[in-house]
Amino acid sequence: MYSVCKELLSKQMHYDWGLRAMSGVLRIAGGMKRADPDKSETQILMRAMRDTNLPKFVQADFGIFLALINDLFPKVDCPAIVNPELQRAIKHVIVDEDEAYWFTWNKYGRRPGLQPEESFVVKCINLAEALSVRVILHARTHRPRNFTR
Questions:
Q1: CATH of 2-72, one of 2.60.40.10, 1.10.8.710, 3.40.309.10, 3.40.50.300
Q2: What is the pLDDT of residues 49-63, one digit of tens each?
Q3: Which of 28, 54, 116, 117 is buried deepest, with most CB atoms within 10 A?
Q4: Are 5 and 71 in contact (CB under 8 A)?
Q5: Strands, E assignment, the chain
């Protein structure tokens, strides 16, 4: 799967098709299987691959990757699971009138008038999920720091 993605998708610096990416998918799939042992392994693996890779793609690669997932897992339907509490919190911060969130955005200290666009909320949720499984390099030592929960 990853070798096909490496050839078909656009060349981006932040795309990782190596063992680190595979181990992240397997780690997520293992956690999903432990959380829901009755779900089929095919559904779990498909969801793990989709949910860990899709957030890092640029818009042009979404369709290609989803087509690859559908080819690899034909007739497997596994909708994405969204954390409603996190989704509510993100929307609350975006529309909150409290200036404590927004005083650095505008030289007059006014809220920038943001709307809770669904695509932005989904990207925020994707970022939270990605940060829960990714290994991040420490800025000073350039050594991996594991931030998994």
A1: 1.10.8.710
A2: 888 888 788 788 888
A3: 28
A4: no
A5: 135-137, 144-146
